[in-house]
Amino acid sequence: MICFHEINMGVFDSHEAKNWLKQWLAVFTTWTAILPSVKIEAQQLHTYLLRLAANQSPCSLNHGKVTNKSQIGCRFHEIFRDEILLQHKQQPSWRNAPTDTWHNDEFAIAKLFMQPSGYDDKTSFEQVDFNGIAAFIFNCGRFSATTEALSDQTVKYCEIKSSERTTVE
Ligand SMILES: [Zn+2]
Predict the structure, then answer these.
(1) Model's pTM, two decimal places?
(2) What is the pLDDT of residues 127-164, one digit of tens each?
(3) How far, rounded to the nearest angstrom, does the alpha carbon of residue 148 sit from its chain's CA centroid?
(4) Residue 133 CA to ligand 1 centre (angstroms)
(5) In angstroms, rounded to a whole number, what is the distance separating the alpha carbons of residues 102 and 109?
(6) Is 156 a member of any domain?
(7) What InterPro entries does this protein map onto (predicted)?
(8) CA separation for the pair 129, 118 (Å, rounded)
(9) Domain count along the chain
(10) Angle, CA 101 vertex, CA 97 and CA 102 arms, to 5°
(11) CA–centroid distance, residue 19 to ligand 1 (Å)
């Protein structure tokens, strides 16, 4: 945790720099506040997909390229693919996560909801930038029910944080 009482360098004296710092803090605290809920949501989505495919034996094969309609030749993965298509508000980024990661990695599933470039090599939520997290929240249909709860949490978190950092004001 950075202690803002210790920031006393000339660079933060100007009005412009203070505004910039405040904006940066707003983005950072929002991200920190929503990340735990985002992880829980990703876990629940993964558990839900596994339950849908419970009659199939779990498959850890890489079936290569996946598209919205192509035959994967594997019922387990087709159930996953079809449900992700249903939950996704736009077009899944199939190339972000190969099928051999789907059975045991909820983060891989979350990546399918992120932008089509810049995320294929990421292995955890901590490595993902704000845009990626926002895309997951925005594109995943499951979030519509929890978005309100998420923003409540963010507000609470930011209230606590702003009382802690009065010197920035
Ligand atoms: Zn398979």
Answers:
(1) 0.73
(2) 998 789 888 988 987 776 555 555 565 556 556 556 66
(3) 16
(4) 27
(5) 6
(6) yes
(7) DUF4559
(8) 10
(9) 1
(10) 90
(11) 51
Give the residue carrying structure tokens 């605290």.
Answer: 29
Tell me if 12 is assigned to some domain: no
Distance 79 CA to ligand 1 centre (A): 10
How far away, in angstroms, is 55 Cα from ligand 1 center?
Answer: 13
Let me know if residue 126 belongs to a domain: yes
DSSP state of 140: B
> How far is Cα 66 from Cα 68, in angstroms, rounded to an integer?
7
Contacting residues for 91 by C-beta, under 8 A, at least 6 apart: 68
Q: Give domain status of residue 11, yes or no.
A: no
CA of 108 relative to ligand 1 center, distance in Å: 15
- Backbone dihedral region for residue 53 (phi beyond 0: left; psi -120 to 50: alpha; all else: beta): alpha
